[in-house]
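Pinned message: reference record for DUF134 domain-containing protein
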Amino acid sequence: MPRPRKWRNVCCLPEANFHGPLEIAKRTEEINMTVEEYESIRLIDFEGLTQEECASQMNVARATVQKIYFDARKILAQSLVNGHVIHIQGGDYKLYDACNSSEDFHRCHRHRNE
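Predicted structure (tokens):
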């Protein structure tokens, strides 16, 4: 029997869950991106955290974050190159407001402006 998947901590859900070409009529395919893949892109590329810091915030191993991040970047590349729409949904995550739970956690961009 496989080991149960560990829940990944996610600070907040994306404001929009569809991203892609503006020409709706040209949508040829939709690619699914999980919420934790979105979170890894947000933390590493947007917030500037290292993979180690991202892993700590998401409460998973660094190697797990590396795989999640690699998969997310592949989805972004497919969308850019092939013009596919990205639909952000699903995954093994729980919402965890790390921004307000401790002074030691990184404050995310979305909560900085509140």
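Pinned by admin. Summary line: The CA atoms of residues 26 and 83 lie 8 Å apart.
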